[in-house]
Batch of 3 targets.
Target 1
Amino acid sequence: MINGDNRDMFLDRRDAGKRLAAALSHFKGEDVVVCALPRGGVIVGAEIAKELKAPMELILVRKIGHPYNPEYAIGAVSEDGQLMVNQQEVASVDRDWFEAEVKRQIAIAKEQRKKYLGGRPPISLEGRKVIVVDDGIATGYTVRASIRFLRKMKPARIVVAVPVAPSDTVELLRGEADEVIVTLIPEFFVGAIGAYYEDFTPVSDEEVIQALESVHEYAS
């Protein structure tokens, strides 16, 4: 699904979140939890949580980048070790490096939970509608790993909502999520999410914490 906004660029992640929230307005008043991927997805997700007056949870799934091109994802791993990988790409890299990188990313995910959420217990997702949010999707490995991780929490429905994604990845996700909502699906995806933002400045840990605090009133 694409909403009615046909602009092909976002000012920044907050602008993307507000525009995406407009496409999610039909969830207002429902039992929804916004599940955002740090760091950039949290800024987008906070705007959606404010619009829907919904709690926001973090999904701590880490991208596994190619050793010679870290921006190119060859897979993703959740904080509990749930893997989603491109088997062909993984077979082409050093096995010891890959296993060490998986362990490193799991450790980073666990550290992020402590840093961003402190001792706050996870929000219960069982029987609730979950909206998975990131600032964009390229290969889709991180979001697909997130979906598999979330299925174990027994939500009533999983909706993937992102500002921008390529059409082939959207089709792939439609086979795994219950619904996929994308603001912009470019006819020719250039391969970099940041190309669709005027400001795609890296998000700091402090900004993630501030975004979580901005929707704290909806926590439940």
Note: The first helix runs from residue 13 to 23.
Target 2
Amino acid sequence: MSNNSFQRALKASLLLTVLALSTSAFATKVVFDTSEGDIEVNLFDNATPKTVENFLSYVNEGSYNNTVIHRSVPGFITQGGGYAFNGSIALSKLPTKSSVINEPVYSNRRGTIAMAKLGEQANSATNQWFFNLDNNHANLDVQNSGFTVFGQVVQGMDIVDNIAAIALCNSVPMPNYDCGSDDVPGVENFVTIYSITLSDTSPESASVLIPVENTLIDATDDNGGSSGGSTLWGLFALTLLILKRHQASYI
């Protein structure tokens, strides 16, 4: 079976799963308590059950507590879930669980949250996620077999935008910090996620949402890339942040 045929079959199977679970599966709202304000997200439990289960496993264990937003690309995405600031000069990479199967049911539109993953590895998502700052469907719905959208911001998109507007040090948003300074940053110089907590698990919590279906997934090529070519967008930041005079660079 070609990769295109496989993707069509997988998508059909996922949509059938949505229909089969629609009368019994629950919907979940979570709140990101951040140093910039609260962000409420409604998760798509029915459509992306494996991804939501994976995300909530990190939430329930407190894995995201006191982590930082470690990457932001203006007008594109802002990303977190994988690193923490522990007072040293480098960000600490967090341990991960086994990767989760890709579920590219919905489209990467502004205000959605999706899983980050490794390039050319469709089923490599673990703990990192990103908020879509714009309609990124032309790229992310097809690249690397599609990026799994597993929720939508229902309150606090202004907070996400505020985070995206913070000055960057090598792609890391760092409030009130001069990248050219010799000063070692403190926790106040990072966008911190204090916690992510469940706020609503009622089956009706997503009933008013109308997420856009990913209709571009069939454009994915046979190598797991995309018709637009492979880029680094949405990938894991697999390096430590080293802050030096005049620059902060991943190494």
Note: The longest helix spans residues 3-21.
Target 3
Amino acid sequence: MEQRVTIQNKELTVEISSLGAEIKSVKKDGVQMMWSGDPAVWDGVAPILFPICGSLKEDKYQYEGREYTLSKHGFVKYTLFEVESQSQEQVVFVTRSNEKTRESYPFDFEFRVAFRLSGSTLSVEYGVKNCGRELYFSLGAHEAYACPEGIEEYALLFDQEETFDSTRLEGSLIREDTIRVSEPSRLLPLKESYFKEDTLVFQQLKSRKVTLAHQNSSKKITLSFPGHDYFMVWHKPGGRYICLEPWCGLPDEVGSSYDFTRKKGIIRLTDEAVYSHQITFEL
């Protein structure tokens, strides 16, 4: 059964669901910073993407001569995690492979997500342990930040100048060509028109830090994502939110061969290695 876990300090109060280890609420000084998860628009808040990011071509892949099916973003967002440890300012969730996961994903793994508070900063650390002879996976974050005034009141400030070339999509698969959505700058004012093709897909960002800032107030959130090679920005018309998504992996390419081991952005672990990545939110 799903349970909600709350961690807090003097500055932040964070509520996390055991279903998908998904952040449901982040409040600073009593002000909600996350999207509400309104099912009339989009019922997510901050789903974790594992063992794939985005979609597979025809929702299928091949591994060692067998074909498997995985839906968009993988199964972890539907998985009930266990609380492995908890204190006032941190909690660690864990899930493991089992007979059910092996039906669609024939690998043995442990997957941990640790949430920790330090002042006005929330860190989220993902740990993937290979418990078999090899493990192939992708991993991504999908947090939706509240923009109650509408996204065009906000802008993204990157820590380096960027060209803002977004990879084009064909359905939910990536193409080879790109489109420039804005002139080179550190600043990207948000526009509804950017999301006519669903998602901005940045494969060549130099930045590993971005600030979502209200253009007429001091409200801001700074996201740091070292080690994440890909960055998505997503918004659904009618939603008062913007999703900032650091990914270690990509959707399938239009011309995918279905070979999971050759998938663009795939991560491979051998022996009993552990893959660990962290993102932080400074509010």
Note: The CA atoms of residues 233 and 244 lie 5 Å apart.
